[in-house]
Design goal:
With 467 residues, this protein is mainly β. It contains four helices and 30 strands. Helices cover 10% and strands 34% of the residues. The strands form seven sheets. Strands 8, 9, 10, 11, 12 and 16 form a six-stranded mixed sheet that branches. It has a five-stranded antiparallel sheet with strand order 1-7-6-5-4. It has a five-stranded antiparallel sheet with strand order 2-27-26-25-24, with no helix packed on it. The chain starts with a helix and ends with a strand.
Amino acid sequence: MRLDLTATRGLAFYGVFGIIHTYFIPTMQSKLGFILVTLSLFLQVAFAQVQPPGVPFRSPVTVAPGYSAHVIFSNLTTPRGIAFDSTGSTVLVVERGFGLTALSPSSTSPGSWERSVVVQNTGFTHGIQVDGSSLYLSTGAAVLLYQYDAQTKTVAPNQAPMTLISGLPADGELTTHTLQLEKDHSGKVTALLVGNGPLTNIDTTARDPASGRSQIRRFSLPSSSSTTQTWSSGQIIAYGIRNPAGLAFDPSTSVPKLYVVENGASIDNVTGLTAQFVNDNPADEMELVTFGSSILPFYGFPDCTTLWNPQADPVGNPEFVNLPRGTQFSLRLDPTRDDPWCQDEKNNLKPALSFQAHSVPLDIKFYEPSGTGSGSFPSSSAGDAFVSFHGSFDRDPPTGYGVVQVPFPLATTPSSGLGYSFLIQATNLNTCPGTCIRPVGLSFGADGKLYVSSDSSGEIFVIEQST
């Protein structure tokens, strides 16, 4: 049986209002301060929700041997980016179309999870980062900075957030603006990376770094500043990445290496490519961005893309049959940017790893062992990357709808095998999207378990090692 959280909110509202009306209002009307405190308590309780353990997934899932998965909260409003606060046990969830909420283990009901509202803002889209009391959230046009109290799970009362970065392009097809904090060797935050997608599916303006499209920009974060930075003032660190949906630094290297997952363009209308070919091409990608290069790295979009299945249509597109997976090929939007141009890494950097076409990777996290308790991931997974696959909407049969593990260091020959394996996936892909899991955000808790948001199914679930 699924918990009806709408009903829970209504019961909380009615119950607390009844208490206030019956016991406090008749006798305390002259004590305005008490009434305001009581009203504040009422609002907090009215928004609080509890979900007991044992609520099933909306649709069946298959989990890799040695692991298990269970839902900790359901019926959320399009949960996207997630991050743990400084307590290590409270996960903050961007609920697109609603705001930011906090999920934490119940102190009174073992196994249950409590939901409380941190910020109501329908403009939040996806991006979230937390550094102590600093809470970074993105909207379609800005990055906001809140002062957050992890003990009370609240932001500073009566204090508007600071607009940290303004002028983000808000008119494109993809305006989720993924965020990633950059830290120095001591762990001090030094910068914020912000991603931006294209204006259109195949956006020729993205060839120009000054367009601000399909790229990642870096913004320095001094220890004290109240000045709003603008999108145009950010340092461009990579461009030609169609939709930099997930960003993560490799924790095992002293030289900063940023891994970026992106989903390829839909190429259904590209001249010369058959419907059968584009059903399994192009690959989605994991890019490697290294810092300190004197040349601004370009990753191909919109002109170049990556071959996933050369045998997708040997009759209609025989020119790809003998090429290896991962080959760069041109979409022939510009005659000067042909196949040889795309295959020259002086022009176009190929991906570090290719994913099956239409998998739609949206987040990446590296596992750093943080707990030895029951259910924590094994030490053998240390340094590996985990990537969420949102899943296809235009492939037959569907693909994705899961979370994969990518062993690190990356294989030198990704064409010989996938280079990754599923940790969890919807059991019957033929029913997807439907009520299937559609993973988006990933975050490892202090308990060493992996927490995942699933937007269209409205779920937050956890993956742990079986005991």
